[in-house]
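Holo prediction. Input below; ligand is glutamic acid.
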Amino acid sequence: MPCQSSEELKALVEEARKCTKNGRVADYIPALGKANPNELSIAIYYPDGRCISAGDIEEKITLQSISKVISLALVLMDRGPDYVFERVGMEPTGDPFNSIAKLETTTPAKPLNPMINAGALVVTHMIKGNTVEERFQRLLSFVQEMANDSTVSYCEEVARSEFETANLNRALCYFLKEHKIINEDVEQLLDLYTKQCAIEMNCLSLARIGMVIGMDGVDPLTGKQVLPTDIARICKTFMVTCGMYNASGEFAIEIGIPAKSGVSGGIMGAVPGRFGIGIFGPALDEKGNSIAGIKLLELLSKNYKLSMF
Ligand code: GLU
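Structure of the complex:
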């Protein structure tokens, strides 16, 4: 066991919380701007069912970019890697998550990976179903299965707030449509994508999903293979290479845990074969990662030797 008790975890949270004053809450999605910048909470889920936590772990957060790992897993299961990777690449970009730059210089205009917005929009486009509602329900059911929690839902206010202001993502969609990477109605795709990003849960459920990915797709508490081993492997690899935006290289060196962050301040960690981590700390650094969340992971990784490398 790396960290034995919630008490130990609380001390690390208080140490890491000092960093929140150097970060800023994302407000380009207006509803996210309401978050309390001093907030910091964490849950760790172990395969034996033990769960330790610190901070206000009942607080719900929207997944934002963390959802990109789950939508990728779903479309890989639905359509297989060949189909998916014909339409979205496997390489990190080194650019901010919402950049359009590489789409213009790459031919064909296939997004470089599924963790940047352009790539995630293509992935969401591939979710099967006849209507937005049907596609969203399939994704939501899959999230519920991974979290083993049928009450997980989405925050309508955050979804609407993003939908109304998502002009950069609209631009990415029109660019992708012009280059025939996607072919559906842009408003419809954005409706689905913003609902996906607004799926919300607490740190415990986030940690549970991290555990399932870390345990090669098996939920050790139910014995169920929630996603195939090979797809869990692909998810973990993208989390290492592209999960922490254009800070993924430094994060891999300093911390060494497959992780995915979102602009809501969430971070999901999947320590291979060991446990899952769910963090919420809405004050972000300049790259869009939870500033205190990263500090907390750094403390955990150093204190308990968690780096996989
Ligand atoms: N919904 C957000 C967007 O597309 C997700 C970005 C993120 O969490 O990195 O801008």
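The chain has twelve helices and twelve strands. That is the main takeaway for now.
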